[in-house]
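> call design_seq(struct)
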């Protein structure tokens, strides 16, 4: 790029306008005289998308690069940013693929350390606590107290008793409301039980008194809706319970770990 282009880029970035920056860097991609310059412009464009929380667009932009035609630092940056943007977009399979590709083509120990934290986060998304714990230990932190603490946190995380969504749903089929109670929502379970037994009672009362239409289309129909919906909802509540139980501890570990990473200046 010329000095004028560099100044123009700086002005655009200073304006904190990612959308305008995207247009500028796409122009730079088009005008690039070689593939290395094109890679750099695509990296800048992807970064603008990332700053604007458009992670999918950032990852797709990086797919247009030719990393093998750049030097090692640019090649690493493309791979790392691709893994990071896919992770932020919750596309964990693509993120892991990009991470492994750059990991096995990088020889620098310092650069490999930069990948480990992201690899730990991906292990968390797979709920593979043992793998994540092993990766943390591989980082060889100098603080023994931290090492003992983080290992204990992972042990506690692995011992969380999770709810089985299928079991919650099945329980609700046998006893309305039982699945919600199993999922830790006792009040909702009692409410579901009372509503469904009330609807069955209404249907029975209607049939006994000859009100077959209202008994069928009000009592039985509404009971069926609440019965099926309640069972599915119980499964959802069990999944929600698991997510909340894991998320709280997982976030605690990630925050604690990142503070130690910054403290030891790994990044």
């Amino acid at each position: 790029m010329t000095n004028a282009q560099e100044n123009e880029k700086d002005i655009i970035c200073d304006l904190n306008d990612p959308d305008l920056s995207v247009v500028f860097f796409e122009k730079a991609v088009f005008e690039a005289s070689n593939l290395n310059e094109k890679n750099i412009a695509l990296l800048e464009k992807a970064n603008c998308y990332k700053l604007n929380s458009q992670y999918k667009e950032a990852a797709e932009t990086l797919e247009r690069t030719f990393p093998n035609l750049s030097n090692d630092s640019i090649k690493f940056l493309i791979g790392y940013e691709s893994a990071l943007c896919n992770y932020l977009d919750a596309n964990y399979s693509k993120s892991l693929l990009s991470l492994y590709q750059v990991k096995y083509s990088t020889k620098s120990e310092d650069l490999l350390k930069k990948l480990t934290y992201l690899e730990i986060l991906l292990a968390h998304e797979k709920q593979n606590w043992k793998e994540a714990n092993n990766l943390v230990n591989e980082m060889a932190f100098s603080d023994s107290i931290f090492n003992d603490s983080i290992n204990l946190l992972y042990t506690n995380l692995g011992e969380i008793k999770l709810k089985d969504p299928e079991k919650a749903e099945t329980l609700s089929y046998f006893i309305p409301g039982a699945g919600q109670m199993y999922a830790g929502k006792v009040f909702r379970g009692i409410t579901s039980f009372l509503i469904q037994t009330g609807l069955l009672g209404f249907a029975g009362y209607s049939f006994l008194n000859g009100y077959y239409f209202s008994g069928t289309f009000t009592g039985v129909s509404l009971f069926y809706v609440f019965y099926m919906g309640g069972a599915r909802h119980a499964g959802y509540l069990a999944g929600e319970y698991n997510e909340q139980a894991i998320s709280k501890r997982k976030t605690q570990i990630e925050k604690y770990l990142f503070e130690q990473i910054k403290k030891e200046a790994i990044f």
